[in-house]
Model the fold of this input.
Amino acid sequence: MLIYVTAITASPGRIWNALIDPARTARYWGHHNVSTWTTGERWEHRRVTDGGAETVGEVLEIDPPRRLTHSWARAGEEHDPARVSRVTFDLEPVGPRVRLTLTHEGLPTDQVAGVGAGWPFVLASLKAYLETGYPHLAR
Done:
């Protein structure tokens, strides 16, 4: 299990919108997160360059602006239960900031290093984007 925690000086609503709005995710993540954001509906992590989905899943739990959980699998592997993991974003207000905890459970062993290295970049970029207006793009 991978767990990452960061504090962001922004409202829970701003952070929530940055997690689910495709135009915003493109700014700091380089991909559009596309879904109706309804439990049971499909979620896709699409490249901004050509719109192809690299990662897909299903919205498992949605409680705005507190918790978002979705499954996570490489496109084409979503029907193999051994290749599907689970990502949860928990938002907890702490004074003027929000503690964002990202938990990634059940990740296939061959993906732990790559995905594990990617999440800190995504969270740093999200934090920079929300606090300064500019994402952290160097990787």
Notes: DSSP finds three helices and seven strands in the chain.
